[in-house]
Amino acid sequence: MARRERLHDALKAVLFPGYRRDIVTLGMVTDVRVEGGSVEVDLRPGTDRPETLAALRTGIEATLRREPGVERVVVRIAGREEGRGRDPFAGRAPIPGVGQVIAVSSTKGGVGKSTVAVNLALAMAGLGKRVGLLDTDVYGPSIPLMLGTTARPRVGADKRITPIDQYGIRLMSMGFFLDEQSPVIWRGPIVMGIVRQFVKDVDWSGTDVLVVDLPPGTGDAPLTLVQQVPVTGAVIVTSPQDVALLDVGRGIAMFAQVATPVLGIVENMAGYTCPSCGTHDAVFGEGGGERLAAAFDLPLLARIPLVPDVRASGDAGRPIVVADPHGTVSEAFTALARKVLAAADTTMSTAPIGVAPA
User: Do 118 and 143 meet the contact criterion of CB atoms below 8 Å apart?
Assistant: First the structure.
């Protein structure tokens, strides 16, 4: 049993083609059987692409043959009758005119995810990128308020929707089509249709990076996004307390299941420092982001402090990166933007098949 577990763990060195996550984390290895020098691996990869299957087989064989005592490796790939089915992402297509898609997500509500998404997008624009910001939280769209605009998108003769320009970035949100008193009582198919329309029918041409603010949870909106377009990577936002970490961890697992790379963790509201006396108060606890990053072997991209001006500037429609571009918090968002862009570039340059170093 100990040898079987060791060989099973060794398969974490095999990355799924084109992604930074391994086949064990993605739940594709269903069984490992060991008999003497022979090892059999049952694999359910969720795809029927011949080039992907061949690359996985090669990666598994190469990895296991490096292990002591392994003389023969057999990889059994599940067929359709065993539930492999068709590749659920085979229909994904890049958004015309968009270079990269960065999803900002948190399974837990109330951790400041939209604040991070807005200021991350603005910080990327400050670094010279042409940035779009898509708000897919159709039940609680907050982007129009946080960016101080009540404009209405235009529809051109070609039936394409033109995003709103504000503070140098391009915006789209369901909030542009609702008044403040309109209740949103929609079931899943309608939500999925809106996300598809915002991805396919909005003119995002000339956008280097599209930042997508996902709603809390792992429901229809995030699943529709990853099924429609190849997402370059996800940024996971959490606050330090354990109750947030538990839910956010489930969100990370969701991205693994849909073969979407997670670029790293952002710990928001990471302590308050009194401007008068300098005393630091860990209002929501300490070290949560670091523990979450360590548990999932992900980088901690940033720790954003709890600063009243961040809330006030968002409520006023002038996000902190615009209202105080040289302040401490804005500098933290700029550093975060650099790390996210670098991680996204690395993800896009990943080889078709990767076997992590032994």
Answer: yes
HSE toward the beta carbon, residue 129, CA cutoff 13 A: 25
Q: In sequence order, which residues have a C-beta less than 8 Å from that of residue 346 and are 6 or more positions away?
A: none
Q: Which residues pair with 14 in a beta bridge?
A: 355
Q: Across the strands, what pairs with 100?
A: 209
Quote the tokens at residue 233: 């990577």
pTM to 2 decimal places: 0.73
The SS3 of residue 150 is coil
169, 175, 165: which is closest to 143 by C-alpha? 175
C-alpha pair distances (Å), 231 with each of 92, 114, 210, 328: 9, 18, 10, 30
Tell me the C-alpha distance between 213 and 131, whole Å.
Answer: 13
Q: Where would I find the beta strands (DSSP E) of the chain?
A: 14-15, 29-35, 38-43, 72-77, 98-105, 131-135, 154-155, 161-162, 164-166, 169-173, 207-213, 233-238, 262-267, 272-273, 280-281, 300-303, 354-355
Per-residue three-class SS string for 36-49: CCEEEEEECCCCCC
Residues 6+ apart with CB under 8 A from 116: 104, 235, 237, 266, 268, 304
Question: What tens digit of pLDDT does each residue of 96-152 get?
Answer: 999 999 999 887 677 888 999 999 999 999 999 999 999 987 766 788 899 999 888
Which amino acid would we find at residue 219? G
